[in-house]
């Protein structure tokens, strides 16, 4: 979109927040870059240029606006909607792959050379993987500076910088303030930071209806790993450097997020996973505009627009839980998962009812299949999935190739269409995954007068592409199942 100058100017002049994250405005006279919704007075058209990413604007010598904080705008929905190599690269960069493994590691995960990745990212985003990772490090540093009392040297290394000097230089270049100046500016009028806990806001594009999103997470929460308490969703996180816990609470214009980490280097990855879990980078206007063309869905959308797809912080965990939940009730699936967590999960010390990390595939690979209290067919499917994940034969990571992964799932014994589609929808993040055989979908379809058979329903749903996963959320919302509404407080 950034190449369409006239369209960008119109969006900028309208201060439309729907375009935040789609492109960035660079003001040539002040050398400042902003998000499209920035409330500041804009210059003449000839004094503006547009960039596809914050990293590209920073690389061109512009610093972030102190008023609208463009570096903290919602991510581009393209990286969740698309499955090409650029989108896969962006998901991996957001997950911290470049910081942990460098550009060669990123390229290896994608199956391309480092030069090819560099060329494709530059062509589309105006910045290579190092510049994109640097922009993310700057934003992570800003969060740590403003929300914690960590010494600046600790902030530098936790944010992924190789030295305090590069940390200082980057913060000055991006924010036009020293790290101590940034902390002093943020501290005015704010309560003191809680040691070990980071408090931040996760932005999203409106409209936003969280009922089915948080209702689903609460209804399927595995005891010990997840819980709904005091109007918020809580869960443990297994992360590359350690573990953490997160609390996510819906607010009218953001998600209030509290994160506690055993290793601060996991902050960027933890934020990325929370955003992915709640589908916060979605473009609800585009989704709802297409789905609303179906007269059956239109009333559902008008009633509660902006539904999101409940996703996951760990696709491997989601896949294993999907197999456990085959042909059983939600309550039975939670019970099976809770037993697995108690027997094989990693104990952690936290507050509330969070006691464990979900078991790793390495731990599950060592268990005795006979200890699994489930039918033989499902037991075989579960152990086969564990083996494929443990030996790398199945890749469910954020940079995975969706087509290849779905084909691999379809070929695995005991993984039927429903399970593969649930994994694609919630684990891989495919916005077009569809569940024509799901009981809740079929019940909703019958109540709305939609075709009753899976084949006929799939044909009807072709008009909903590429947003069929969101159509499923609207169909599920017609049910009286607890997962379709915001949890009630006890």
List the defining traits of the structure above:
490 residues, alpha+beta, 5-stranded antiparallel sheet, 4-stranded mixed sheet, globular
What does this structure look like?
The protein is of the alpha+beta class and 490 residues long. The chain is 47% helix and 10% strand. The chain has 23 helices and 11 strands. The strands form 3 sheets. The protein has a 5-stranded antiparallel beta sheet. The protein has a 4-stranded mixed beta sheet with strand order 3-1-2-4. A hairpin with a 4-residue loop joins strand 1 (24-27) and strand 2. Helix 4 packs antiparallel against helix 5 (97-110), helix 7 (129-147) crosses helix 9 and helix 7 (129-147) packs across helix 10. The radius of gyration is 23 Å and the shape is globular. The N and C termini lie far apart (47 Å).
Question: How many distinct helices?
Answer: 23
In terms of quaternary structure, the protein is: single chain
Largest sheet, strands/sense/barrel: 5 strands, antiparallel
Which class best fits the helix and strand makeup? alpha+beta
Low-confidence stretches: none
Determine the fraction of residues in helical runs and give it as a percent range.
40-55%
- CA radius of gyration is 23 Å
